[in-house]
Design a protein that fits this description.
The protein is built from 11 helices and 13 strands. By secondary structure, the protein is an alpha/beta fold.
Length: 340
């Protein structure tokens, strides 16, 4: 069995592979086996791998299963102590794996970790999708050390210490293979978006820790599959976030949080329409709310199991405040300024 397997899930990403896979091979070959799992691409991804990267192991899936199920199926075919899930639009740096592996080896209580993510286009800034590790506010809004909503901080070393987080980004996620399998991997019904938060939250509820290890640093393009304003992304983010909350919130908080979220989601939708004049995203939020209502009953057994096996109702990485209030009312736009 290999120590570490880097698995890159690809769908029509030949240009990304051509640009960023060389850095992965150059800086990882001594410490990991590299796989590309292809989600039934219709471009020349597979031909590119065969022609230019013959050393990469290939997993060919028979259709596009999305991020969640695509990784579940690919990882079921990989034997390793650690999986490192890596987006195809990530540029890695020399010795990036050493701090991650060392940290996991010396901290058996940690289930997963991530490197520090900087933006590939603005290289002195954090990257939106992961920055220096992720958290949730009381109402389920995700944020990071280094990124609150659309405010992304420059990296000036302010978050260079390892820190426990609630979730590690799916753009570069190192996870113990046995624990990934123990909790059933990603929730395949999500297809894409929020699946890594859901996975990490479930691991935390079982008593395992999640960390950011900023001694390791990578550069992420972001938005390589769906652009930030894409209404499908809006739909998936809202639907999956609500579903994740339903699964993981403790009984004493579920009703209150979901009531407040219903109000806030509709406020967000009308803001998209009336202020941003974005009809597509307005419709996507309403569709997401309806989709959640329609499929909620599918997750009743998941919720029962998660609540029955949780080790605590209090996770310090799920903060006891409203991020909307902190950010928009109190004008606390930096992670370091947030207050309980």
């Amino acid at each position: 069995m290999d120590k570490l397997a880097i698995v890159i899930l690809n769908w029509n990403g030949a240009s990304m592979l051509r640009t960023y896979l060389p850095s992965v091979l150059r800086h990882s070959a001594d410490e990991a086996v590299v796989y590309v799992a292809d989600n039934d691409s219709t471009d020349d991804s597979l031909q590119l791998l065969e022609r230019e990267f013959p050393e990469v192991r290939r997993i060919v899936l028979d259709k596009n299963y999305g991020f969640a199920e695509g990784y579940n199926r690919a990882l079921s075919l990989v034997e390793a102590e650690y999986y490192l899930l890596l987006n195809s639009d990530v540029e890695v740096t020399p010795h990036w794996l050493t701090p991650l592996i060392s940290f996991m080896d010396s901290h058996p209580e940690v289930a997963a970790c991530q490197p520090k993510l900087r933006s590939e286009s603005q290289r002195d800034h954090f990257e939106y999708a992961g920055a220096a590790g992720g958290y949730l506010d009381f109402y389920g809004y995700p944020f990071c050390r280094g990124r609150l909503f659309d405010t992304v901080e420059p990296d000036e070393g302010q978050y260079d210490s390892p820190a426990p987080v609630l979730w590690a980004t799916g753009a570069a996620l190192l996870v113990r293979a046995r624990l990934f399998k123990k909790v059933g991997g990603f929730d395949a019904r999500f297809f894409a978006h929020c699946e890594e938060i859901d996975l990490c939250w479930r691991l935390r509820l079982l008593g395992h820790a999640i960390y950011c290890v900023p001694e390791s640093c990578v550069y992420h393009v972001g938005g390589g599959t769906l652009p930030k304003s894409n209404p499908m992304k809006t739909f998936l983010n809202f639907r999956n976030n609500l579903t994740m909350l339903y699964k993981c919130l403790p009984d004493g908080q579920l009703q209150h949080v979901m009531f407040v979220r219903r109000l806030l989601d509709y406020v967000a939708a009308w803001h998209m329409l009336l202020v941003k004049h974005n009809v597509a995203d307005f419709v996507a939020v309403y569709r997401a709310r309806n989709a959640y209502k329609q499929w909620k009953k599918q997750f009743a057994e998941d919720r029962f199991r998660i609540q029955a096996t949780r080790t605590t109702d209090q996770l310090p990485e799920r903060r006891n405040f409203s991020l909307l209030w902190q950010y928009y009312v109190k004008r606390r736009t930096l992670y370091s300024k947030l207050k309980e």
